[in-house]
User: What shape does this take?
Amino acid sequence: MDGLNCEALPVVLAVMAGGIALYLMMRKPTLRAIPFELKAPAESQPSWCKGEILDAPGITVSDRPDLIQCFDPATGRLLGRVPATTLAEVDAKITRARHAQTAWAQTTFEQRRQVLRTLHEFVLANQREICQVACRDSGKTMIDATLGEVLTTAAKLQWTIKNGERVLCDENRDPGFMMMYKRARVVYQPRGVVAALVSWNYPFHNTIGPVISALFAGNSVVVKASEHVAWSMPYWEQMVRRALDVCGHSPELVQFVTGFADVGSAVTGSPEIDHITFIGSPEVGKLVMRAASANLTPVTLELGGKDCAVVFADSDMAQCVPVLMRSVIQNASQNCIGIERILVQDAKYEWFVKEMERRMRMVRVGAILDDEPNQVDCGAMVLSACFPRLEALIADAVAKGARCVVGGHAYAHPRHPSGQYFAPTLLVDVTPDMDITRNETFGPIMVIMKFTDEQDALAKVHASPYGLGSSVFSSDRVRARRVALKLRAGMTNVNDFGVNYICQSLPFGGVGISGFGRFAGPEGLRALCVEKAFTEDRFPFVKTPIPPIVDYPIMDSEKGYKFTQQIVAFAYSESWWQSIKAGLRLGKLSM
Assistant: This one.
């Protein structure tokens, strides 16, 4: 036996060597990432304090409607004033994107991957700088920036690099019995110039995410950034354009525009835009849809949520409570999939309320780039104009029987009087008739409701018109899965919150007034393509004939009708015997 093994060893090694050589010969060449440098704005440094502290921060300049005033919402410190994109510039940028896309559409998937690899390597190498820029422009903490800006972007880049080609490769389809002599497939072709109008809550990820998908699908892209985070947009735009440039492609493929409502309307109403992705409110989403309808431009709408977490009494509270704390406090709950309603089963309700009260009272708000280390848990809010609305929603709930146990109001920070803070709030004993259960708050407000059983929980969840994300917590996996699948929502997580978005293979989107269409996953990537149905002859000598009996001019209409009738019976009868009889009739009619 040992002798046989020794004699066979050279053969085995030769086969292995041949296999490795064949693999190396057939393997597609990989285009590596190309390093580049890009300096972050000086204002993003923690030590920067040169800007004037505004008494009443706002984005408009009274005597200059063409300018956007940029400031740090955590301190009210002026970052600068940037020009709003003019309507003429919007048209010019769309035109430049159109011209650049012609060549880009002809690139290989490997060339597109190289651009994404280059961008990916830059993001990983410059995490701190990217987070600091995002913190300065939106007031979030470094941890929240890492999780919401960098980690999510890295996940999207990695998934697209690894899976994008498989998703967009031609897809063979079954031609069916009657067309068995044909090849049928779906070809995914670029749409052309696509647009993304994105929200301000994650300035880096929300702008770069649509760019990643658009470029890999072979499109150019126009990004309308929110005027509330206009300061950081040049940095993000330069980042992507440099990645394109060092890889030998036109930077004009990516165009950023920023401004007020007129700029957004110019993008959504342009006949040169081939697809629109919008992230925002239901009210503005309707306006986007109306503008797009003039040119029948397809749209994907992500319009926010009133996400619920259903917590059964048998849940692992040691895991559940910290997860739900983060679902409310992360980014000051300026998350479209932030948990805005926590439904707790009655047997564990009082314990849950007391534990959350203890934790919420310890949450510290502040400016992560300006305050002392280890002093900030929750950052500022981008829109202080929403504070009266939040306070009114809380007051309505209290008037109807709820208890505001912690917070409930705007917070005047002792070190940052011009900062925009809302006190972390705990609102309990909330019922579905209260306005706060049907209106997105987008603020650090934990709403706790009580339920008795599955049916009661589902009824209370579905009292809201939103349907974006959701969570179910229970140690009973069968029950958790059963309830999760009954929730009217586009996404749901069992014993977790928001992790479906880290699984970039999954589509992201909602139902109801949370919008329609999907981004992320194969569905999101394909939404940016024209799904072209394609057929061709399987064999060059077998083509579709037109029998003389139905060739124009048709000499005998009745006979022709019977002939086509038998074609249907032959091709689609449930039994072989019926098909055989139909085939014989076809033969007779053809004589």
